[in-house]
Each structure stands twice: as C-alpha cells, then as structure tokens.
C-alpha cells in the first residue's frame, strides 16, 4: 500500500511545464523527512532525479526541480522533452511504515 | 563507481521461499549506508520491502514483516533477502539499492524478475 499519493498521469506538449504532486501526511513528509524523486524508463531501474527535496545529482538537467511544503512535495519539469516520457515516483520515510513510495505518475509528451 | 547486482532463482513455487543476493562492488560496504530491497509487480508501482544497516540493524515493511528477513555478509560485500510463504502476489521485479542517510536510494541493481508459480 502506498501512503504517498501522486496523480496517475500528467501530459504536456514539448517545451511546456508540468508538475507532479506527492501528498503525504504528518507521519512522513509532514514530519520533516526528506522527499526524493525517481525517473523510471521502461524495463530499467529507477534513477534519482531529485534528492533531499530540491537537490539534483550531477548529470540531471536543471529542467527538473523539486519543492516541499507541509505534507506535500512537487516535481516540476520545465521545457518538456520527448525523452522525459517515463514513470516518476516520489519517496520518503514514515515514522511507522519506514520506507514509502508514491503511487507513481506516468508523464506523456504529446 | 558503485555497482549492485541481484542474483537468485527466477521461478519459485507457491508457499516456498524466495532467496536473493545483492553483490556490491566499487565502494565501501562498511561505510554509513543502509542497503535496501524494493520490488515492482508487473505493470505496477514500487514497493519498499526493507533495509539493513552495515551493523545489521534492520527495518521492514510492516505488511511483509512476518515473512521477510534481510541479512548482510560484509566479508563478501553482499546482502540478502528471504521472503517466505510465497503467493502469486509476490511475483515482481526485485531491486536492491544503496541508501544514503537521507534515505535516498542512490545506486540500484538492474533488477531480477521472480515469478511465483507451480
């Protein structure tokens, strides 16, 4: 069971900006635990896009950005490109459930 | 460059035990990292299974806790997953990953598909 809720899908035209929300609760995101974001291409392992709420690993384009407020977090993709079509997951920690992932969002580039 | 590689049977019988090993190379296994297992049923999302610290401390997903054991063998730079009382619902791609203190999973194995079927 996922305790972090994401929209099942978002879409946008090339060049547009899309955002993905990740809604948690007072026992995970709201408790101050960091939120991380992963991109998963078909048939591959997830890859870290954002760690510690708003930090990008080296090699991740600055088109990707993260934010966190209260019990929610968001991932924004600006200047959407065809290669951004993938599944995206948020992840955090929960005081009771320990590791938790979001439900996942499929990004479609129109 | 840290690399993780899962290994184990790809087919396991219902009610049996799934045993997977994750070999870690290219980095210090005994540094301050946690080591995690994550699974993904076909066509579905990611599910956190559990984690182990290099000291041996473990945390498990409460929904799997009664059936899961994660262990570490520092002499071989590897950690392992055992999941018992298997059903078809345990069919999934199983990933191992390195976990930083901030809980981000920064390095992942390629994943291995385990099918539970008679």
Tally of alpha and pi helices of chain B: 0
Helix content of chain B: under 10%
Oligomer: heterodimer
Number of strand elements of chain B: 11
* Cα gyration radius of chain B (Å): 13 Å
Which pair of chains has the greatest number of interface residues, and how are they split between the two chains? A-B, 28 and 24 residues
Which class do the helix and strand fractions of chain B yield?
A: mainly beta
Summarize the structure.
Chain A is mostly beta strands and 110 residues long. Chain A has strands at 9-12, 18-23, 36-40, 47-50, 64-69, 72-77, 86-94, 98-101, 105-109.
Structural overview:
- The complex is a heterodimer of chains A (110) and B (118).
- In chain A, strands 1, 3, 4, 7, 8 and 9 form a 6-stranded mixed sheet that branches.
- The termini of chain A are far apart.
- Helices cover 0% and strands 45% of the residues of chain A.
- Chain A has strands at residues 9-12, 18-23, 36-40, 47-50, 64-69, 72-77, 86-94, 98-101, 105-109.
- Chain A is globular, with a radius of gyration of 13 Å.
- With 110 residues, chain A is mainly β.
- With 118 residues, chain B is mainly β.
- In chain B, strands 2, 4, 5, 6, 9, 10 and 11 form a 7-stranded mixed sheet that branches.
- The mean pLDDT of chain B is 94.
- The chains are: A mainly beta (110), B mainly beta (118).
Strands, helices and their partners?
The complex is a heterodimer of chains A (110) and B (118).
Chain A: E1 9-12, E2 18-23, E3 36-40, E4 47-50, E5 64-69, E6 72-77, E7 86-94, E8 98-101, E9 105-109
Parallel strand pairs in A: 1-9
Antiparallel strand pairs in A: 2-6, 3-4, 3-7, 5-6, 7-8, 7-9
Chain B: E1 3-7, E2 11-12, E3 18-25, E4 34-40, E5 47-53, E6 58-60, E7 68-73, E8 78-83, E9 92-99, E10 105-108, E11 112-116
Parallel strand pairs in B: 2-11
Antiparallel strand pairs in B: 1-3, 3-8, 4-5, 4-9, 5-6, 7-8, 9-10, 9-11
Key phrases:
A: 110 residues; six-stranded mixed β-sheet; three-stranded antiparallel β-sheet; globular; B: 118 residues; four-stranded antiparallel β-sheet; 0% helix; 52% strand
């Amino acid at each position: 069971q996922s305790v972090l809720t994401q929209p099942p899908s978002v879409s946008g035209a090339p060049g547009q900006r899309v955002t993905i929300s990740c809604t948690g609760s007072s026992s995970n995101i709201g408790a101050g635990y960091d939120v991380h974001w992963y991109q998963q291409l078909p048939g591959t392992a997830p890859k870290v896009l954002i760690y510690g709420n708003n930090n990008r690993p080296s090699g991740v384009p600055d088109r990707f950005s993260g934010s966190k407020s209260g019990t929610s977090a968001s991932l924004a993709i600006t200047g959407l490109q065809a290669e951004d079509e993938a599944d995206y997951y948020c992840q955090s920690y929960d005081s009771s459930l320990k590791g938790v992932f979001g439900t996942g969002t499929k990004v479609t580039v129109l | 460059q840290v690399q993780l590689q899962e290994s184990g049977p790809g087919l396991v019988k219902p009610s049996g035990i799934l045993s997977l090993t994750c070999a870690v190379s290219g980095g210090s296994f005994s540094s301050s990292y946690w080591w995690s297992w994550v699974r993904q049923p076909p066509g579905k999302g990611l599910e956190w299974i559990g984690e182990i610290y290099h000291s041996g401390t473990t945390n498990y997903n409460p929904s799997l806790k009664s059936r899961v054991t994660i262990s570490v063998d520092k002499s071989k730079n590897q950690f392992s997953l055992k999941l018992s009382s298997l059903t078809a619902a345990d069919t999934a791609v199983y990933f191992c990953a390195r976990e930083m203190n901030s809980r981000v999973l920064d390095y992942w194995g390629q994943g291995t598909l385990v099918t539970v079927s008679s």
